[in-house]
Amino acid sequence: MQLYLPIAEVSVNALTLLGLGGVVGVLSGMFGVGGGFLITPLLMLIGVPPGVAVATGANQVVASSVSGVLAHVKRRTVDFRMGLVLLGGGMVGSALGIWVFSILRRMGQVELMVQLSYVLFLGLIGLMMLQESLRAIRRAQTGTAPRRAHQHRMVHRLPLKMKFRASGLYISAIPPVLVGAAVGFLAAIMGVGGGFIMVPAMIYLLGMPTKVVVGTSLFQIIFVTAFTTLMHAVTAYSVDILLAVMLIVGGVIGAQIGTRIGLKLKAERLRLLLALLVLAMSVKIALDLLVTPGELYVLTPGRLP
């Protein structure tokens, strides 16, 4: 069944949208990522304008994250105090990102900025995660004890220390706030939950145990992406409700499935799978930027700004 999306001004098969939402939901539950890094470029691939893809993709991330975090709350694998600290920085970063996005939209550079951001951040993060996950797998195979991530790090000598009992940490609140702000900014610019940066930062920078990282990441993603979606809707009217509903239905179901799959896989295997997925998306977007289209100039009807 074909659906006409009024804000995006395209017609898309309903099953395609449900499938996209379901895939992103599975990833959300497995890895603790909102899945925006995947849903936004996929929406652009089926013809949704970048501005609408970013804003509506963030909306879908909220739903899949809510579904995933509920499953983790039942298992007591969410550090709510750490999540609130990350959230404080995330709100500030998101507000700044919305402001920058509005400027780029007026300049007509949104599409290029979104694509370049994906190539840069997904490529760098994917490579770092791949390197670390391979080391973790090698250590597991050889029986070598891993180096504790939170020892001898400068970030843990900073002031404003707080206790995070669920994570077993006593560290400065400054690094979590900065990580949250960076993720909030990316959420506004790229339509992502930021889990692909949040998860490795929580593990390797903050030294959080893997068992609470996924649930805590999803908890923070819920509120930052909800705020981002609201601001995009108010400032640019770029949220397509029909598109969002179809993605949400698939995402909620997929997140429950992904959570169950994630609990059955070893932590180092999860990191490796996420790293490969992030790198694959970076390569795909880079190729789209480099390959010359078949038709250099295409005239399509559209609305005046």
Please supply descriptive tags for the structure shown above.
305 residues, mainly alpha, two-stranded antiparallel ribbon, 10 helices, globular, disordered C terminus
Would you kindly provide a written description of the structure presented here, covering whatever features stand out?
It is found in: Cell membrane; Membrane. Keywords: Cell membrane, Membrane, Transmembrane, Transmembrane helix. The chain is mainly alpha-helical and 305 residues long. The protein has one domain. The protein has helices spanning 14-31, 36-45, 50-74, 80-107, 110-142, 174-190, 195-205, 210-236, 241-264, 267-290; strands at 2-5, 10-13, 161-164, 169-172. A two-stranded antiparallel sheet has the order 1-2. Helix 1 (14-31) runs parallel beside helix 9 (241-264), helix 6 (174-190) runs antiparallel to helix 7 and helix 7 (195-205) packs antiparallel against helix 8. It is globular. The relative contact order is 0.23. The model is unreliable at 296-305 (pLDDT under 50).
Q: Rg, please? A: 19 Å
User: How far apart are the termini?
Assistant: 31 Å
DSSP helical segment count? 10
Spatial shape: globular
Strand order of the largest sheet: 1-2
Provide the β-strand percentage band: 5-15%
Number of DSSP strand runs = 4
Give unreliable regions as ranges. Answer: 296-305
Largest sheet: 2 strands, antiparallel
* Number of individual domains: 1
Percent helix among the residues? over 70%
**Structural class label:** mainly alpha
Elements, N to C (H/E)? EEHHHHHEEHHHHH
What is the average per-residue confidence, as pLDDT, rounded to a whole number? 75
InterPro entries: TM_pro_TauE-like, TSUP/Inactive_protease-like
Subcellular location: Cell membrane; Membrane
GO cellular component, one term: plasma membrane
Transmembrane segments: 12-39, 51-71, 83-104, 110-130, 162-179, 185-206, 213-235, 241-258, 270-291
